[in-house]
Design brief:
single chain, alpha/beta, Rossmann fold, 7-stranded mixed β-sheet, 7 helices, globular, binds glycinamide ribonucleotide
Length: 199
């Protein structure tokens, strides 16, 4: 079994969608949800899904060791950031090389970086008069939203769109693509683990 941990700071609709997608799988499961906010709605979703969830402070995320300990406790193989606000610290990056991915609600390298989160991103895209936006799934590195891009999908931005309208379109793309992109990445990792064990 490959164990996925999801890091989420807010509502967690992507976390729920990913967990649902893998709920029937015999070899991949979402085993843990971690947040930096005790009040995040993602905890309610986790409890309905029967997935353990916990919270670590910004300091604990920054230091890394307590989060790493928890990830290891749940035999985490792969980490998914789904609406996660904080930077991923070096100990986590070192422990999971090429095994941490993020979804960003715009077409990187545009409209990314520190503080570019959720509706703020959509507001900036609309204010700039963009005709197209979308999603970017990318590997996580030590800089916000700068890791190698794995997948992008686009949607049209209408002149009349509000940030909520655009968020709805972007969320629809996220729900359609993020779980299957994760599935294909995780399958490659499962093969690597298998090869390593066969050596
Ligand atoms: C998603 O649209 C995700 O792309 C975005 O936050 C939203 C979380 O929604 N992430 C970022 O903005 C990261 N910079 P959710 O909590 O309902 O999954």
């Amino acid at each position: 079994m490959i164990h996925i941990a999801i890091l989420a700071s807010g509502s967690g609709s992507n976390a729920e969608n990913i967990a649902d997608y893998f709920s029937g799988s015999d070899d991949i499961q979402v085993s843990l949800i971690i947040s930096n906010s005790r009040d995040a709605y993602v905890h309610e979703r986790a409890s309905k899904l029967g997935i353990p969830s916990c919270t670590f402070s910004r300091e604990a995320f920054g230091e890394g060791t307590p989060v790493l300990k928890k990830l290891r406790e749940y035999n985490t193989d792969f980490i998914v950031l789904a609406g996660f606000l904080l930077k991923v610290s070096q100990p986590l990056l070192d422990a999971y090389p090429g095994r941490i991915v993020n979804i960003h609600p715009a077409l990187l390298p545009g409209y990314g970086g520190r503080g570019m989160y959720g509706d703020k991103v959509h507001r900036s895209v609309i204010d700039a008069g963009e005709k197209v936006s979308g999603i970017t799934i990318h590997y996580v590195n030590e800089h916000y939203d700068e890791g190698n891009i794995i997948f992008q999908a686009t949607c049209e931005v209408e002149a009349s769109d509000t940030p909520d309208d655009l968020a709805r379109k972007v969320h629809a793309l996220e729900y359609a693509h993020f779980p299957r992109v994760i599935a294909s990445l995780v399958k490659k990792i499962a093969e690597e683990i298998q090869q390593f064990e066969n050596k």
